[in-house]
Design goal:
single chain; 573 residues; alpha/beta; Rossmann fold; 3 domains; ATP-binding cassette domain-containing protein
Length: 573
């Protein structure tokens, strides 16, 4: 084994109890000193299981084989203290790792357990709090933090022990776009400044892939590829040719990779990965096509009217006309003048108002701690507003950020069965299991599912009650690209049946693709609300990667599919 190898596994195989299929099968790879490696794959493919094997006290219960090494020594025989200090782990759910009541105590907790002196603890906590920008909430109760702040705290409480390697399981799932960049910038600095090796499992690859030295692509429990980011497009292409279908992780790949795969010529060997590389490639590709629009400052326009309503004459409506149309539609949920504070003088919502038309998807976006989750809880009646009114037509159901809060039974099947009004007819349960793609996990404990599988199960449990209005808090968290599309089809189907949906999300692509109306929550109220196209057209940071990549080069392309369609129309690819 090479001297600069920090972590490795040889022919690792593992199977959970009561399961016939391996969760991970015959996986081998090596991580070098200071490497930044991204681990990706569809939900339930074994990413979390694999990561947990590299943290001694996190190795799951079941049967397995293979070898694990940390710097050449058997990882399972490592001293517990050394393992805790040298290998840091940040899990999917920030709440499950927090063990104390205050931020400062959470930072100090790990050092106290390692027997570090009081003087050293005070010095290190002060240093880490400044490094992570936590001064303003250093003495806050952990219960008052947003999901994103909790995840930053989890990272800081691990980094403070100065580990050699960080294992992170979808750490940006609960962060807004700006918070995600801040978190990843910090992670990148740790890797660059301290030489800390990083093994990062992620579904949202737009920001993390450009940072990676290598990418591990998993599929159905096996390691499909071990490559550099610029060759990910080749792996996607090869899989599609060999299997006649798209790889599940493909929709989660960066916009630049997906556009390149669909439109590159055969001579191009390396795909652009970042937005900057994608813009450069796009400019060259468009220039070669000769499709230049004189005097426009842009190369060519596309018809971006897909999905917009038309008037009675079939003419596409302008944004102002569409807003007027929405105002005239039947409103099934209305919140007006909502004021809410957790304690006196600390308001969260002030004059919060929304109107949700029947059969529409309303997406609420905003920064961490802006009050998005609180707004849903007020609408649901979990919190009582000091002022304002909420009016709803029909049955409302709410899915929280943490799907585990809905689980009460021992198996996946029982979680759905308990929602039946008629226990003599179990066919709805079987149908829902098929739709959620959880048939193979029906005998599994819900707590043993991956984050994405738990999200699907929780949503399925709500759907068993046939709600009229769904309130969804980060519904795409932990979902792979393939099931995001499946979720979107389900939501659109519900809308066609007259159901209405309010979702809180940091997933710009998902909102741009499927929401009818988008609103930006800031300073306690919805300060910007409009049909989806005009919302993303008017924003700079709260917009999609496709919008940033195509700005000034193509017409209004807010979706990856729009860029691909424009290039193919021009004869590119």
């Amino acid at each position: 084994m090479e001297q600069n190898t920090v972590l490795s596994c040889e022919h690792l195989t593992f199977c959970y109890p009561r399961q016939t299929q391996d969760a991970i099968h015959d996986i081998s790879f090596v991580m070098k000193e200071s490497e930044f490696v991204v681990l990706c794959g569809q939900s339930g493919c074994g990413k979390t299981t694999l990561l947990r094997h590299f943290k001694k006290n996190q190795i799951p219960f079941g049967t397995g084989s293979g070898r694990l090494y940390y710097r050449g020594q058997n990882l399972e025989r490592m001293n517990d203290r050394e393992c805790a200090a040298r290998i840091g782990y940040v899990g999917q759910n920030p709440d499950t790792q927090l063990v104390t009541d205050k931020v400062w105590h959470e930072l100090a907790f790990g050092l106290e357990n390692l027997g570090v002196s009081g003087i050293q603890i005070r010095r290190r906590t002060a240093e880490i709090a400044q490094y992570f920008g936590m001064e303003s909430w250093f003495r806050k109760p952990v219960s008052e933090l947003s999901g994103g702040q909790k995840q930053i705290l989890n990272l800081a409480s691990v980094v403070i022990m100065q580990p050699d390697i960080l294992l992170l399981d979808e750490p940006t799932a609960q962060l807004d776009p700006i918070g995600t960049r801040r978190f990843l910038d910090t992670l990148g600095r740790l890797n660059r400044d301290l030489g800390t090796a990083v093994l990062l499992s992620e579904q949202r690859l737009e920001e993390v892939l450009p940072m990676a030295d290598r990418v591990l692509i998993m599929h159905q429990g096996q390691l499909l590829g071990d490559t550099v980011p610029s060759h990910c497009g080749d792996i996607l292409e090869k899989f599609e040719k060999e299997h006649g279908e798209m790889l599940s992780i493909a929709p989660a790949m960066p916009t630049a990779v997906r556009v390149w795969q669909a439109c590159h010529n055969e001579k191009e060997q390396e795909a652009p990965v970042s937005i900057r590389q994608g813009r450069s490639w796009l400019q060259q590709t468009v220039h070669k096509s000769g499709q230049t629009e004189k005097g426009s400052g842009q190369y060519f326009q596309i018809d971006n009217s897909r999905g917009t309503p038309a008037d009675k004459a079939g003419r596409q409506q302008k944004p102002q006309e569409r807003e007027k149309t929405l105002d005239q539609e039947k409103v099934v949920l209305q919140a007006k003048g909502i004021f809410f504070e957790y304690e006196k003088g600390k308001r969260v919502l002030e004059d919060f108002s929304i109107q949700v038309p029947k059969g529409k998807i309303f997406a609420i976006m905003g920064g961490n701690g802006s009050g998005k989750s609180t707004a849903l809880k007020v609408i649901m009646g979990i919190y009582k507003a000091r002022r304002g009114k909420v009016r709803a037509s029909g049955r409302i159901r709410y899915l929280a950020q943490n799907p585990r809060s809905l689980f009460t039974e021992l198996t996946v099947e029982e979680e759905l069965t308990v929602m039946l009004s008629d226990w003599h007819d179990r066919s709805p349960v079987a149908k829902m299991l098929r739709y959620l793609e959880l048939e193979k996990q029906q005998e599994q404990n819900p707590m043993d599912l991956s984050g994405g599988q738990q999200q699907r199960l929780a949503l399925g449990k709500l759907l068993m009650t046939e709600p009229d209005i769904l309130l969804l808090d980060e519904p795409t968290k932990g979902l792979d690209g393939a099931f995001k599309k499946k979720l979107a089809e389900l939501l659109k189907d519900l809308c066609l049946k007259g159901k209405s949906i309010v979702l809180v999300s940091h997933d710009m692509d998902f909102c741009a693709q499927y929401a009818n109306i988008c609103g930006l929550l800031f300073d306690g109220q919805i300060i910007s609300q409009s049909p989806t196209e005009s919302f993303f057209r008017d924003n700079v940071f709260y917009t999609t990667p496709a919008g940033r990549m195509s700005q000034g080069i193509l017409g209004e392309c807010f979706r990856t599919e729009d860029i691909i369609a424009a290039l193919q129309k021009a004869g590119c690819g």
